[in-house]
C-alpha cells in the first residue's frame, strides 16, 4: 500500500511539472489580458496568476541538505585538526633519525649527523626546529657543512588554499667548506646534479609545452641568517676566501611586496690578499609568475685592504631591474666611489652611469663618466673618461666618441694627453674598432729639454676577439719628428706581437725628460745615486713573443749620437735578442745584445765598432776625455746577475781595441822627460803629476785587450808607437769603483827628425816607467826617474868599458865618466 501511495505521488508530480511547462508556453503565445481581469486555466481550473505554494516548500529539503553538508565539513575539519594536534603531540620525529641518516648516506654518499632534537609545533604556527646538524664530505668524514640551529614556521590555514605562508626561516651558526679542485671539479657539484633529460618520445614539443605554474604561492614573513661562515678554496689558482660573521635579514618576501634586505660580513682571502668589511642594503621586489625582479635604493659599503690598497672604501648606489620574460635589464642612477692608499699615494675613483638599458636584442645608454685621481710624493695624475652615449642590438653597436683626458704633474714637470674615437663593434663576429683615433700630448717643465715636448697621432685600432687579433696603425709627429707605427697582435693568452716603428729623429733624453747620469764619478760622492742599484728582472720574457724593427734617421741618447739606426728585435722562449746597427762617430756599429730570463738573468753583449773616433765617443758616453784615435773596438761580454751593480762584477769576456793616429790625453811623457832635473839626485826620486787636459802623448798605433773577470778589467798586452816613443803597459781597471792601477812603460826611440828628437837623442833606448792610478775621470801619473837614472848609468858604464877595451866615442872623442855622462844628458 505504501508503494501505491508513492507511485501516485510521483505521477502527480510528473503531471504538475508537465502542466507547468504547458502553461508557460501558453502564456508566451497568448496576448496579455487587461489588468484586473482574472482568468482561469481550463485544465487546472486555478485562477491564472495566483500564487503556488509548492515552490517554497520544494526548496526546504535543499537548504537542509546544504546545512548538513556544511556542518559535516566543519566537523570533519575539526576532527582533522584535533587529530593533527594529537599526532603532533604524540609523534616523535627523533625516532626516525637513523632512517634519515641512512637515506642521506644512500642518496649522496655523505654522513649526516643530527645531534640536537627535532621538535614539531602546531599552534599558533605549524613549524619545526632543529639542533646541531652536520653533513660530511662525499665519501669522507671531513665536515662539509653544519648549522648550530634552524627554525621554520608556516601558517596553517593558508595551506588549505594551496598557499605557503612562511612565518619565519632562521638559521644560526651556518658553516660551509667549498672547494674547487685542480681538475676544475668541486666538492658540492654532486648536490647540484641535474636529473637526466627525458627521452625524445617523452618530451613535450616546445610549441605545446606550457609554462609551469608554481603549486604554492610563496610568502615569507622574515628570513634570518646569523653568524654564518663560508670557506672557499681554489686549489687550481692557490686562492682562499673566507666570509665570517655573515648575517642576513629580510622583511616580508612575497610577490610584489617590496622588502628591505640587509647583509653584512667580513671577508679575508689570499691571492689576492683581502681584508674587508662589507655592508649591503636594498629594497627587493619580485614577481615569480611574471619573472620580474627589482633591487631599488641599492647601497653597498666596503672597507678594508684589498688589491694592494690600504684603507680602502668602496660605495655603490643605484637601482637594478630585470625581467626574464621580456629580456629587459636596466641600471639606473648608478654611482660608485673608491678611495684608498698604496704606500704614500692616494687613489680616488668615481663612476657615474645615469641609465643603461638592455631590452631584448637592443640596448642603449646615456652619457657615462669615470674619473680617477692619484696623488703622492712622486706627483699627481688625473684621468677622466667619458662616453657620450651608446646604442645597438644583439648583432652590432656603436658608441658615441669616447674621450680620455690625462693631466699630471711630477715635480716641476707637467703633462697633458688626450685620446678620442668612436667605438663600433659586432657581437656576432666579435670584432671591434676605434676609428678614427686621435691622440695628442704635451709635456712642460724645466726638466724637459727645450721646456716643451709634444705628440700628435692619428690612426685606427681593430680588435677581433674570435680570431684573437689586435691591429693598430698610427701616423703623426713625436717631439716634432714624423712618425709611423704598426702593431699586430695574435693570441691573447700568449700574444705574439709584430711591429714596425719609423721616426726621422729621436731625442731619447728629451723623450724621457732627463739625461742618463755620466759615469766616472767617485764612489760615495753622489749619495742618492750611489744608493741606486736597479734590479735586473727579465721574468716578463717568459710569455713574451716579439718580432719587429725600429728605424731611426737620427738618435740621441745620453749624449750619444747616431744616424741610420736600425734595431731588429726578437723575443721568444724567455730570450730577447736585439741586433743594433748604426752609423756613429764616423764609424759603424754592428752586433747583438741578448737577455735571458733566467734567475738571475743572463746578459750577453757582442758588438763591434769599426772606424770609430773613440775620443768623441768616450766623451759623450762617459764624460771622460782621456783617449783619442780612430779604429776598431770589439766587445764580447756576458754575465749573470740580479742587479746593475752585481752585473759589473759578473761580466766576463774581452774588450779589444786597435787605434791609429791618436793620443793619450792628460800627460805628455816626452815633455816630462825634457823638463826633468839634470842632477843625479833628482833622477833618483819620483815625480807625480795630475792629469791635465792640455797635455797629451801622441801615438801612431795603439792596441791591446782587456780581460774582464769579477769586476776587474786586466790588460797585459798594450802596444803603442809614436815618432819618439814605444809604449807598453800592464794593469787593471776596477769597473765597480771606476778606478785604475796601471803601469805604462815608454821607451825613447828619438831620431834626428820629429818634435823634441834632438833633446831626447841621448836617452835613446831608455825606458820610463809611468804609474797611472786613481779615478778614471781624474787619474794621477807617477814618473819613476830613479829607474831612468839606473838605466842611464848602466848604459854609460857599458860605453866606458868599451872605451877602456879600446873603444872610442863617436867622432874620436874620449868616453866620459858615468857621472859626467849623466850630468851631460840632463843639462838641457
UniProtKB/TrEMBL annotation:
InterPro entries: AsmA (IPR007844), AsmA-related (IPR052894). The keyword Membrane applies. The chain crosses the membrane at residues 68-91. Residues 63-272, 535-717 form the AsmA domain. It holds the Pfam family AsmA. Residues 22-59, 805-828 are annotated as: Disordered. It comes from the Bacteria. GO terms for cellular component: plasma membrane. Signal peptide: none annotated. GO terms for biological process: regulation of protein targeting to membrane. Keywords: Membrane, Transmembrane, Transmembrane helix. PANTHER family: DUF748 DOMAIN-CONTAINING PROTEIN, PROTEIN ASMA. This is AsmA family protein. It comes from Pelomicrobium methylotrophicum.
